[in-house]
Design a protein that fits this description.
The protein is of the alpha/beta class and 263 residues long. The protein has eleven helices and twelve strands. The strands form two sheets. The protein has a seven-stranded parallel sheet with strand order 6-9-8-7-11-10-12. Helix 7 (127-140) links the parallel strand 7 and strand 8.
Protein backbone atom coordinates (compact mmCIF):
# COMPACT_ATOMS: atom_id res chain seq x y z
CA UNK A 1 0.00 0.00 0.00
CA UNK A 2 1.18 3.50 -0.89
CA UNK A 3 0.63 6.61 1.25
CA UNK A 4 0.42 10.07 -0.34
CA UNK A 5 0.11 13.36 1.51
CA UNK A 6 1.12 15.94 -1.12
CA UNK A 7 -1.36 17.57 -3.48
CA UNK A 8 1.50 17.84 -5.99
CA UNK A 9 1.82 14.08 -6.32
CA UNK A 10 1.29 12.95 -9.98
CA UNK A 11 -1.55 10.62 -8.99
CA UNK A 12 -3.42 13.40 -7.20
CA UNK A 13 -2.97 15.64 -10.25
CA UNK A 14 -4.24 12.86 -12.52
CA UNK A 15 -7.38 12.36 -10.41
CA UNK A 16 -8.14 16.08 -10.53
CA UNK A 17 -7.64 16.15 -14.29
CA UNK A 18 -10.11 13.29 -14.85
CA UNK A 19 -12.98 15.48 -13.71
CA UNK A 20 -12.54 17.32 -17.01
CA UNK A 21 -13.93 15.66 -20.13
CA UNK A 22 -10.95 16.36 -22.38
CA UNK A 23 -8.57 14.56 -20.03
CA UNK A 24 -10.96 11.64 -19.52
CA UNK A 25 -11.08 11.06 -23.24
CA UNK A 26 -7.40 11.72 -23.76
CA UNK A 27 -6.42 9.11 -21.16
CA UNK A 28 -9.50 6.86 -21.62
CA UNK A 29 -10.04 6.75 -17.85
CA UNK A 30 -12.68 7.97 -15.42
CA UNK A 31 -13.35 8.29 -11.69
CA UNK A 32 -15.73 6.22 -9.60
CA UNK A 33 -16.49 7.43 -6.08
CA UNK A 34 -18.32 5.91 -3.16
CA UNK A 35 -18.57 2.61 -1.30
CA UNK A 36 -21.34 1.06 -3.42
CA UNK A 37 -19.87 1.72 -6.85
CA UNK A 38 -16.35 0.63 -5.84
CA UNK A 39 -17.89 -2.56 -4.43
CA UNK A 40 -19.82 -3.01 -7.71
CA UNK A 41 -16.59 -2.62 -9.67
CA UNK A 42 -14.91 -5.33 -7.60
CA UNK A 43 -17.91 -7.68 -7.91
CA UNK A 44 -17.88 -7.21 -11.70
CA UNK A 45 -14.12 -7.88 -11.96
CA UNK A 46 -13.42 -4.36 -13.20
CA UNK A 47 -9.71 -3.59 -13.44
CA UNK A 48 -9.21 -0.70 -11.01
CA UNK A 49 -5.99 1.15 -11.82
CA UNK A 50 -5.88 2.78 -8.40
CA UNK A 51 -8.05 2.75 -5.30
CA UNK A 52 -7.68 5.79 -3.07
CA UNK A 53 -9.10 5.90 0.45
CA UNK A 54 -9.06 7.96 3.64
CA UNK A 55 -9.94 7.36 7.29
CA UNK A 56 -13.55 8.35 6.53
CA UNK A 57 -13.97 4.90 4.96
CA UNK A 58 -13.93 3.32 8.43
CA UNK A 59 -16.80 5.45 9.75
CA UNK A 60 -19.43 2.96 8.53
CA UNK A 61 -19.86 -0.82 8.66
CA UNK A 62 -20.08 -0.97 4.87
CA UNK A 63 -16.84 0.94 4.57
CA UNK A 64 -15.07 -1.38 7.00
CA UNK A 65 -16.34 -4.43 5.12
CA UNK A 66 -15.21 -2.99 1.79
CA UNK A 67 -11.72 -2.39 3.16
CA UNK A 68 -11.45 -6.09 3.97
CA UNK A 69 -11.91 -6.77 0.24
CA UNK A 70 -9.26 -4.28 -0.88
CA UNK A 71 -6.66 -4.14 1.89
CA UNK A 72 -4.27 -6.53 0.13
CA UNK A 73 -4.50 -4.93 -3.30
CA UNK A 74 -1.22 -3.57 -4.65
CA UNK A 75 -2.85 -0.52 -6.19
CA UNK A 76 -4.24 0.76 -2.86
CA UNK A 77 -3.39 4.35 -1.89
CA UNK A 78 -4.05 6.02 1.45
CA UNK A 79 -4.38 9.81 1.69
CA UNK A 80 -5.13 12.21 4.58
CA UNK A 81 -8.78 13.23 4.91
CA UNK A 82 -8.03 16.84 3.95
CA UNK A 83 -6.51 15.67 0.68
CA UNK A 84 -9.33 13.24 -0.06
CA UNK A 85 -11.89 16.01 0.44
CA UNK A 86 -9.93 18.04 -2.10
CA UNK A 87 -10.01 15.35 -4.81
CA UNK A 88 -13.56 14.06 -4.13
CA UNK A 89 -16.45 15.22 -6.32
CA UNK A 90 -19.29 14.65 -3.85
CA UNK A 91 -20.43 16.97 -1.07
CA UNK A 92 -20.19 14.25 1.59
CA UNK A 93 -17.43 11.89 0.43
CA UNK A 94 -17.40 8.37 1.85
CA UNK A 95 -13.63 8.09 1.80
CA UNK A 96 -13.02 5.96 -1.29
CA UNK A 97 -12.64 6.41 -5.03
CA UNK A 98 -11.08 4.55 -7.94
CA UNK A 99 -9.64 5.11 -11.40
CA UNK A 100 -11.16 2.93 -14.13
CA UNK A 101 -10.30 2.45 -17.80
CA UNK A 102 -12.95 2.99 -20.45
CA UNK A 103 -14.54 -0.25 -21.62
CA UNK A 104 -14.65 0.75 -25.27
CA UNK A 105 -16.86 -1.21 -27.64
CA UNK A 106 -16.71 -1.14 -31.43
CA UNK A 107 -19.05 -1.69 -34.38
CA UNK A 108 -17.58 -5.14 -34.92
CA UNK A 109 -18.63 -6.14 -31.39
CA UNK A 110 -22.28 -5.69 -32.36
CA UNK A 111 -21.86 -8.35 -35.05
CA UNK A 112 -21.23 -10.96 -32.37
CA UNK A 113 -24.59 -10.33 -30.64
CA UNK A 114 -27.32 -12.80 -31.54
CA UNK A 115 -30.60 -11.01 -32.37
CA UNK A 116 -29.48 -7.75 -30.69
CA UNK A 117 -31.70 -5.30 -28.81
CA UNK A 118 -29.94 -1.94 -28.81
CA UNK A 119 -30.70 1.61 -27.72
CA UNK A 120 -29.34 4.67 -29.56
CA UNK A 121 -29.23 8.08 -27.87
CA UNK A 122 -29.55 10.99 -30.29
CA UNK A 123 -28.00 14.14 -28.82
CA UNK A 124 -29.17 13.51 -25.26
CA UNK A 125 -27.47 15.98 -22.94
CA UNK A 126 -28.75 15.58 -19.38
CA UNK A 127 -26.40 13.43 -17.25
CA UNK A 128 -29.31 12.22 -15.12
CA UNK A 129 -31.17 10.97 -18.19
CA UNK A 130 -28.12 9.21 -19.58
CA UNK A 131 -27.37 7.55 -16.24
CA UNK A 132 -30.99 6.48 -15.79
CA UNK A 133 -31.07 4.96 -19.27
CA UNK A 134 -27.85 3.01 -18.69
CA UNK A 135 -29.23 1.68 -15.40
CA UNK A 136 -32.57 0.74 -17.00
CA UNK A 137 -30.78 -1.02 -19.87
CA UNK A 138 -29.12 -3.17 -17.23
CA UNK A 139 -32.42 -3.82 -15.44
CA UNK A 140 -34.35 -4.90 -18.55
CA UNK A 141 -31.61 -6.80 -20.36
CA UNK A 142 -30.91 -4.50 -23.32
CA UNK A 143 -27.78 -5.70 -25.16
CA UNK A 144 -26.07 -2.33 -25.48
CA UNK A 145 -26.40 1.42 -25.63
CA UNK A 146 -24.99 3.65 -28.35
CA UNK A 147 -24.29 7.34 -27.93
CA UNK A 148 -24.42 9.39 -31.09
CA UNK A 149 -22.78 12.70 -31.92
CA UNK A 150 -23.65 15.51 -29.53
CA UNK A 151 -24.51 13.29 -26.55
CA UNK A 152 -23.36 14.05 -23.04
CA UNK A 153 -20.33 12.20 -21.66
CA UNK A 154 -21.31 8.78 -20.23
CA UNK A 155 -18.15 8.84 -18.09
CA UNK A 156 -18.84 12.13 -16.32
CA UNK A 157 -19.00 11.76 -12.51
CA UNK A 158 -22.73 12.54 -12.36
CA UNK A 159 -23.61 9.96 -15.03
CA UNK A 160 -21.40 7.31 -13.45
CA UNK A 161 -22.96 7.84 -10.01
CA UNK A 162 -26.51 7.70 -11.35
CA UNK A 163 -25.88 4.34 -13.06
CA UNK A 164 -25.37 2.78 -9.60
CA UNK A 165 -22.82 0.33 -11.02
CA UNK A 166 -24.73 -0.58 -14.20
CA UNK A 167 -22.04 1.16 -16.26
CA UNK A 168 -19.86 -1.91 -15.62
CA UNK A 169 -22.44 -4.29 -17.09
CA UNK A 170 -23.95 -2.44 -20.05
CA UNK A 171 -21.81 -2.29 -23.22
CA UNK A 172 -21.45 1.34 -24.31
CA UNK A 173 -20.64 2.18 -27.92
CA UNK A 174 -19.59 5.64 -29.06
CA UNK A 175 -20.59 6.79 -32.54
CA UNK A 176 -18.60 9.47 -34.39
CA UNK A 177 -20.90 9.63 -37.42
CA UNK A 178 -24.53 8.94 -36.60
CA UNK A 179 -25.95 8.56 -40.11
CA UNK A 180 -23.06 6.46 -41.38
CA UNK A 181 -23.40 4.17 -38.38
CA UNK A 182 -27.18 3.76 -38.65
CA UNK A 183 -27.01 3.08 -42.37
CA UNK A 184 -24.46 0.34 -41.71
CA UNK A 185 -26.78 -1.05 -39.04
CA UNK A 186 -29.63 -1.01 -41.54
CA UNK A 187 -27.52 -2.91 -44.11
CA UNK A 188 -27.07 -5.67 -41.52
CA UNK A 189 -30.83 -6.14 -41.39
CA UNK A 190 -31.19 -4.57 -37.95
CA UNK A 191 -34.47 -2.66 -37.76
CA UNK A 192 -34.32 1.05 -36.90
CA UNK A 193 -37.15 2.13 -34.59
CA UNK A 194 -37.52 5.80 -33.62
CA UNK A 195 -39.64 7.60 -31.06
CA UNK A 196 -41.96 10.06 -32.80
CA UNK A 197 -45.18 11.84 -31.81
CA UNK A 198 -46.76 10.74 -35.09
CA UNK A 199 -45.75 7.10 -34.62
CA UNK A 200 -47.94 4.14 -33.80
CA UNK A 201 -48.61 3.15 -30.16
CA UNK A 202 -45.67 1.28 -28.72
CA UNK A 203 -47.79 -1.76 -27.88
CA UNK A 204 -48.36 -2.27 -31.63
CA UNK A 205 -44.62 -2.66 -32.27
CA UNK A 206 -43.13 -6.15 -32.19
CA UNK A 207 -39.64 -6.24 -30.70
CA UNK A 208 -38.92 -9.90 -31.37
CA UNK A 209 -36.32 -9.44 -34.13
CA UNK A 210 -33.04 -7.50 -33.95
CA UNK A 211 -33.52 -3.74 -33.70
CA UNK A 212 -32.03 -0.46 -32.57
CA UNK A 213 -34.41 1.98 -30.88
CA UNK A 214 -33.53 5.69 -31.10
CA UNK A 215 -34.28 8.00 -28.16
CA UNK A 216 -34.27 11.68 -29.13
CA UNK A 217 -32.96 14.87 -27.59
CA UNK A 218 -34.77 16.16 -24.48
CA UNK A 219 -36.31 19.15 -26.27
CA UNK A 220 -36.05 18.45 -30.01
CA UNK A 221 -36.72 14.71 -30.19
CA UNK A 222 -35.14 12.47 -32.82
CA UNK A 223 -33.27 14.24 -35.64
CA UNK A 224 -35.29 14.45 -38.89
CA UNK A 225 -32.47 12.73 -40.82
CA UNK A 226 -32.76 9.68 -38.58
CA UNK A 227 -36.55 9.65 -38.77
CA UNK A 228 -36.25 9.63 -42.58
CA UNK A 229 -34.40 6.28 -42.58
CA UNK A 230 -36.45 4.63 -39.81
CA UNK A 231 -38.19 1.33 -40.43
CA UNK A 232 -40.76 2.04 -37.73
CA UNK A 233 -41.96 4.98 -35.64
CA UNK A 234 -43.46 4.55 -32.17
CA UNK A 235 -44.96 6.70 -29.45
CA UNK A 236 -46.08 6.23 -25.87
CA UNK A 237 -49.84 6.89 -25.67
CA UNK A 238 -50.62 9.46 -22.95
CA UNK A 239 -54.32 9.83 -22.14
CA UNK A 240 -53.54 12.38 -19.44
CA UNK A 241 -52.87 16.10 -19.88
CA UNK A 242 -49.04 16.10 -19.82
CA UNK A 243 -47.60 16.99 -23.22
CA UNK A 244 -44.40 14.98 -22.91
CA UNK A 245 -42.28 12.74 -20.72
CA UNK A 246 -38.75 13.09 -19.41
CA UNK A 247 -36.37 11.32 -21.83
CA UNK A 248 -35.16 8.93 -19.13
CA UNK A 249 -38.73 8.03 -18.14
CA UNK A 250 -39.81 7.55 -21.76
CA UNK A 251 -36.82 5.33 -22.49
CA UNK A 252 -37.58 3.26 -19.38
CA UNK A 253 -41.18 2.65 -20.48
CA UNK A 254 -39.98 1.62 -23.94
CA UNK A 255 -37.42 -0.79 -22.49
CA UNK A 256 -40.06 -2.36 -20.28
CA UNK A 257 -42.22 -2.98 -23.35
CA UNK A 258 -39.19 -4.44 -25.15
CA UNK A 259 -38.58 -6.81 -22.24
CA UNK A 260 -42.17 -8.04 -22.41
CA UNK A 261 -41.63 -9.09 -26.04
CA UNK A 262 -38.20 -10.63 -25.55
CA UNK A 263 -38.40 -12.20 -22.08
Amino acid sequence: MLEISSRNNPLIKEIKSLYKKKYRWKNKRYIIEGIKIVQEAICNDVDLRQIVYSEKLFSTIKGKNLFKDIENMKNLVKVPQRLFDEIADTENPQGILGIVDFNEMYFEDILSIDNPSLLFLDKLQDPGNIGTIIRTCDAFGIDGILLGEGCGDPYSPKVVRSTMGSIFRVPIYMCDNTMDFLLRIKELGIKIVVTDLDGKPIYDEKFKDSFICVIGNESRGVSPDIVSIADSRIKIPMPGKAESLNAGVAASIIMYEIMKWRR
